[in-house]
Amino acid sequence: MRRPVRHPRVAGAAAALAALAVLVAPAAPAAAHNSLASATPAADARLATPPSEITVRFLQKLNPDLTTVVLSDAARRVVPTGVPVVAGTRATVTVAEPLPDGTYTVAYRVVSTDGHPVQGSYRFTVADPAATAAAPVSPPPTAAPASGAAGRAGRDGGPGPLTVAAGVALLACALVGGALAAGRVLRRRRAR
Length: 192
Fold this sequence. Notes:
single chain; metal-binding; Immunoglobulin-like; alpha+beta; elongated; 5-stranded mixed sheet; signal; 3 helices
């Protein structure tokens, strides 16, 4: 009995279709694989003193190369932070300078070790009653931090200034994640 002949182009097309399916699949099933378990500071927290670092913890282990955490102020300007340090299910960024009173948004995009992307955001407020009025935090001199940037919708529901750049960055991360997942599937099939 003859075994069917498999062509490399057919396998490549199947991998491309699998990657495309990952990209166009709804976000809800991806969120079932991993989700935000906790954060410090917590969502909607009101802090008397500004935090020196931001930590987000997920239910499953994170891929350090595909983890982005961005802090922005009420005017949607990116606040300088360190590169995310990933340890298992946690990602931590150090805040570069003390935060003046105000509302801040933490936006994150992570890819779990199983290849599924998870993204979201939450807010917290710094309200030190003893603090004097401080100058607003200025954006870093570069267009985007090394760890990436995530856009945030404005209060009126319109797109924020980083929405397009963040969308491109998120799409690129999703493409890489899909290609990695498709490659794993092909390697497993070839091993059989």
